[in-house]
Amino acid sequence: MAAPTLFPPPPMDEGSSGPPAPAPATLDLAPPPQEPEPPLLRRRPPVRVTSEFDSERRLFSHRFSCRVLDGLAKLRLRVSHAAGGGGIAWGPPDFALLARNFSVVVDPASRGAVLRGTADLAGSLRLRASHNTKEKQGEVSVTANLGDSPCKIELSSLVPPNGLPKATFFFPKGEVSIKEKILDEGDRILSVNGLVKSHVLNGVCTAVYNDNAMNIKYRYKDDEISFIPSISLPSNSLSFAFKRQLTPSDKLSYWYNFDTNYWGATYKHKENKHLKWKAGYQSDNRLGYASLWVGDAGGSTKEVPLKAKVHFTLKVPQDNVQNSVVLVHVKKRWDF
């Protein structure tokens, strides 16, 4: 016997009771409405304004910068004015266009501009050039890597040239340069300068030779102590610096020069990354001082709370305490 066939129930009449049948779902294929494109003035790049005040020079400075050309370059305008009693004296502004391999800095006060550029040439050659339009003088240099070694050589010359180009040889532990030098009598000689670093007895020894004078400095440092003696030849001038990390937040520094008997000492306390103070004394200036930083003293304004840094300094001359002065330096940033 065959199974009975099941039919769907007949639709209800308007007068019949019961819930109405649900409407079939429909798929909306209409595209979402497009937002209107913002006007040109609203599509401007973000502008950053950095303002600084230096009470020692009684000077305000303001720097305006923004990214242009899809972030490939930065446009900068810097203006300053003095906070004198006779009113505001505005200084000449300077304008700059800064990119990775090219920059232009315009100084309207001197009616000149400085152009700098770099370019990678064939192989491992790198070209650098600069030109000052006011002085009508520039410099060009070419740097080349020596094969696969970390050593490289650089040739640089003034434009227009006034002598032989300068040659500098760079190697992992220092550099040596040879250039032409003009003496007071007008004679031209070849001058050799150099710098060499080497690890000696758990420290770093650095020797710098320049214009027939050499300075030898040794630096030993561990987690708690830094000791830095140095001697200059042929004057045999000897000095040293000593630093002691008392706690993770406290450091004591001391330096002494044996030729002049000048010395100095500084005590630093770091409460946290954005708050620290220090106090010290310098015998050559006969000056005591104390400073307070609010904001990372060594960092940029983008890394500190409220994007600001404040630095207070109290200077007390030993010979005349009444001439003590409090200096303030403030740096604040706004993003628009």
TrEMBL record:
Question: Per the UniProt entry, what is one GO biological process?
Answer: monoatomic cation transport
**Residue spans of biased composition, Pro residues class:** 1-12, 30-39
Q: What's an example of a GO molecular-function annotation for this chain?
A: monoatomic ion channel activity
> Region (Disordered): which ranges?
1-46
One Gene Ontology cellular component annotation held by this UniProt entry: chloroplast outer membrane
- What name appears for this protein in its UniProt entry? Outer envelope pore protein 37, chloroplastic
User: Which source organism?
Assistant: Panicum hallii var. hallii
